[in-house]
Fold this sequence. Notes:
Layout lengths: L1 H9 L11 H9 L24 H32 L3
Helix pairs in contact: 1-3
Amino acid sequence: MGLAAALLVAAFSPLASPSPDGLEAVAASQGFLGLGQAAPYQILPDYSVPFISHPALTTIAAVMVGTLVVFGGAVIIGRLATRRQAAGL
């Protein structure tokens, strides 16, 4: 149910505010936004999927991929923790 809800919310991601988030806004107002370094790699740069050209669809796809990756990671960690606990470690 949680995954379904997250994917449903992801479909509305193009409607999110284009304004910077709180951390970015503070960095801009304090004058150190330009000191940030670029990430060493970009998996889905600017919430876009390279082979989808429509702006709204590429954002939705990128958010859904990210949601599925985080959900998958949480499931794997949960299963490993359950196995470890069952084994008495």
